[in-house]
Amino acid sequence: MLAVHQRLAELYTMSLKRPLEPAERDEQQHCLHINAVYCWEMARLNNEALLAAHTQDSEWQQEISAQMMEVRVTGKAGKRRS
Question: Which of 27, 31, 43, 77 could cysteine-pair with 67, CB 3.0–4.6 Å?
Answer without folding.
Answer: 77
